[in-house]
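Ligand: nicotinamide-adenine-dinucleotide. Inputs:
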Amino acid sequence: MKESKLRAVVIGAGRIANDAHIPALKALAGRVELTAICSRRAENAKAMAKTHGFSHWYTDCEKMFREQRIDLACICTPNQSHGPLSKLALECGAHVICEKPLSICAAEAEALYQCANDHHRSLVACQNMRYDPSIVLARNLVERGELGDIYYATFTYLRRRGIPDWGGFHRKADNGGGCMCDLGVHQLDALLWILGNPRFESVTGFAATHIGNRKSPSKDDNKPSSPDGKVPHRFHPSEMDVEEFAAGSIVLENGCRIDFKTSWAVNLPDERNIRLAGTRAGLCLPEDTVFSEYAGHQADIHFPTTAEARLWNSGHRDLILDVVDHVQFGCPLPIKPEETLNVTRILDAFYRSAVEHREIRANEIQ
Ligand SMILES: NC(=O)c1ccc[n+]([C@@H]2O[C@H](COP(=O)([O-])OP(=O)(O)OC[C@H]3O[C@@H](n4cnc5c(N)ncnc54)[C@H](O)[C@@H]3O)[C@@H](O)[C@H]2O)c1
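Predicted complex:
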């Protein structure tokens, strides 16, 4: 057990750092010291340090880890840097909370958890959606066996138009993939957690981009980003080389089948839900309604308890608190390595399937 304050750093000075990680760390002021912030652009790092009270700011992570003793690193940078930065932080002795997705490559995720083990440090993927009250309700109901065995499930997260137009979300070099590893990963992780982290047998994936790569007169098309990140990024359709729509199926080892679809852009209405069909009852989220039978009749049971208003960043607050409790008091890890490895293996299989136009079986993924 560690009684002194945890020395925390934040890597990346963008939206999620500013709106979720830093407020969560500041809320733990008695237990966490904001040691340093590192971002590629000096003016951002400097401004964030001043605004939020970090003692130091850097543009070079290696230098920061050399100069500071760090207990906890929050990695809030674009996806493709998650692996290298997590590795660096772990090797330098920090526990790591890394934004989702930790990786879309199973081999990389395996190596990262091995690195965490070797250095006796914890690595946690920031799957904040697990703290959503609907997801917690579903997990409790499934764990208690109230729905029976789940034999079919779906997850859907469709944005009719909602391609992130800041940072490098739409570029493979920065983000690795598109909506599947941005939105889909949240629901995939939550659903597998609800189901008790079952292993998968096969994945069939489909990915498409037809809207975001079209030149749009309403966008400022004349300012592509600079690859070194020194010029603030503007969305540029010609750079869009990741999927804006993803769909597919996952067959689990226990026989359950999951169908999914997710988008940043699609000519369909916005939709966001998870559905579970069990042998005793079904469940629809976010309506929080169980479809069951009572006294020989079909009966719908609605759970009003989850309607409480929550700030969008509450999940980050709760997750970061759990990780700090884990580091300081040895409380259980909120997101377990085997769970994130399972998610990563499915993402890896999804992307391979989408490229190779065939079903990918679990034994093909390392
Ligand atoms: N969990 C969630 O609900 C949630 C929500 C939004 C974003 N995210 C994730 O957070 C990450 C960042 O998203 P964002 O919206 O904050 O992006 P952003 O573009 O606003 O911020 C990224 C920041 O990282 C900095 N950066 C890039 N490469 C760096 C490097 N090598 N070293 C140091 N700094 C570097 C950039 O300069 C920028 O300040 C993404 O992985 C995204 O998927 C998660």
